[in-house]
Design brief:
This protein is α/β, with parallel strands linked by helices. It has a domain at 55-250: Spore Coat Polysaccharide Biosynthesis Protein SpsA, Chain A (Alpha-Beta Complex), CATH 3.90.550.10. It is built from 13 helices and ten strands. The protein has helices at 8-15, 22-36, 55-64, 81-93, 107-115, 139-145, 148-157, 210-225, 231-241, 259-264, 267-271, 286-295, 305-317; strands spanning 70-76, 100-104, 120-122, 161-165, 169-171, 186-190, 199-206, 248-250, 256-257, 277-279. A seven-stranded mixed beta sheet has the order 3-2-1-4-7-6-8, with helices on both faces. β1 (70-76), α4 and β2 form a beta-alpha-beta unit.
Length: 333
């Protein structure tokens, strides 16, 4: 039986270990409660030293969320091609390429993806950017990301679960095996931003439930009525609107890490954790974000998981931990 709890413990889990003052922890908790409201949420399990759910939990997760019933959805543009290459290599390294659907904003990007055998679609009105880099929060950027709820809704209505994956996310393990406990409508990432955009709109898992479908219908209606907005405020607005009918799980912030926690607070290296996913947000301009990913060993330049793990381990811990036993050994799936 699930119990409705507030997320004070969840945020304390991060900030307590990285020197945040108690006042900041309380403020963070209040902000997050304003987003989730009285939705069904679950405190993350204290597994900082076990580094993965127990085998019996993983077995249940694999049965409930099989990759065969999940579409990994990504939106890309030629202007971000290094991240597109990273996305393709990263998903291939985990053996999940057959479940990837890439929506391309411009035709050159779409044509290249199709030539490489990637399952791809051309976004509605595709060709708008001509392959140029889309500045964050620009009109062209909003046009691309605002197509997300329509695509997600289409997949949910077909009975498919959706794992929305920003191209600037690095996966160090199959995220579908870490959706524990099971039974939630949405699994989301805390972005640690202001109230109206607190939960990240580019990295989540949605089950094909009536509640999730209604949420994305409301998000789409919000975008149609607020043409100057973009997807993250709309995503958060729809979460708040549907908070009484949704069951929401916030990803453990040390295993599904945002850019602030990973790079600015250095929580992962301080806690000696190997995360499941790292989101390279909280970084502008794009050249800096890309350089930071390379220097941290988190840009997948080849479709090999061991190579990615070794590069990351060398960067963060000064040695290649990878699959070798040690005090912080991680048993990869």
């Amino acid at each position: 039986m699930l119990v409705a709890v507030m997320l004070l413990g969840e945020l304390d889990c991060v900030t307590e270990h990285i020197g945040e003052p108690p006042a900041r922890r309380v403020v963070d908790s209040v902000l997050l409660r304003s987003i989730i409201g009285s939705a069904w949420v679950d405190r993350p399990e204290q597994q900082l030293l076990t580094l993965r759910p127990p085998d019996r939990v993983r077995t249940n997760v694999q049965q409930e969320y099989p990759p065969s019933n999940t579409t990994i959805l990504a939106f890309v543009n030629s202007g971000y091609w290094p991240w597109v290459e990273h996305l393709l290599n990263n998903v291939a390294a985990l053996g999940l390429s057959q479940h990837l659907l890439v929506v391309a904003e411009d035709r050159p990007c779409f044509n290249t993806l199709r030539q490489r055998g990637v399952r791809a679609q051309l976004a509605a009105g595709g060709g708008g950017s001509g392959g140029k880099l889309l500045p964050y929060n620009s009109k062209a950027y909003k046009s691309l990301v605002n197509q997300m709820p329509r695509q997600v809704l289409r997949l949910l209505r077909s009975g498919q679960a959706v794992f929305l994956l920003d191209a600037d996310v690095t996966l160090l393990a199959n995220p579908l095996e870490y959706l524990a406990p099971t039974g939630y409508d949405l699994y989301v990432q805390d972005d640690f931003r202001e109230v109206g955009a607190r939960i990240n709109g580019g990295f989540f898992f949605a089950r094909p439930t009536p509640g999730a479908q209604q949420m994305f219908e409301d998000m789409l209606a919000y975008i149609d009525e607020h043409l100057d907005s973009y997807n993250q405020p709309a995503f958060n607005w729809a979460l708040r609107r549907n908070r009484h009918r949704l069951r929401i799980k916030v990803f453990d912030p040390l295993y599904f890490v945002n850019g602030l926690t990973m790079f600015q607070r250095n929580a992962v290296s301080k806690m000696r954790v190997i995360p499941v996913a790292v989101h390279h947000n909280w970084a502008e301009p794009q050249a800096y974000k890309l350089r930071r990913a390379v220097e941290s060993g988190l840009l997948a330049q080849r479709p090999y998981l061991n190579s990615l793990l070794m590069n990351f381990s060398r960067s963060v811990y000064g040695q290649a931990r990878g699959l070798t036993p040690g005090p912080y050994r991680y048993d990869w799936p």
